[in-house]
Amino acid sequence: MNRPIAILICALSLGGCATERAYVGPDRPLAALAVIEGAPQLTTGVPIKAVIRKIDDQVLRFGYSRVLVLPGRHAVLVDCVMANHAAVRFPMTMETIAGRRYVLRAQSAAGNRSCADVTVDAL
Hints:
Blueprint: H1 3-14, E1 18-21, E2 34-43, E3 46-55, E4 58-59, E5 64-69, E6 72-82, E7 88-96, E8 101-108, E9 115-122
Parallel strand pairs: 1-5, 2-8
Antiparallel strand pairs: 2-3, 2-5, 3-4, 3-6, 6-7, 8-9
């Protein structure tokens, strides 16, 4: 594996582990909130990641991969980031339920040269 790709894999797996709160008001128990997170992964050896950029009107700070939100409908802006390729931006609308976790997964296009889509796994 060449050095730039190895460095990117490390950055994708280690970076962005912090959780940001994307609601106004007092702290709430985790059971009363939904969690939206971007998941790094390898697609046929190519690192790819769904990076959350914005939830509703709140722009996320760099390094935050998980977001706590109130249950309900949310506008989510996600960048699909792939090694050695430009990021592709995907606007999404999600309906969340308290106590659930929603994992955003970037999908590679044929040939692993760009991002094709971002899907949501509700856990």
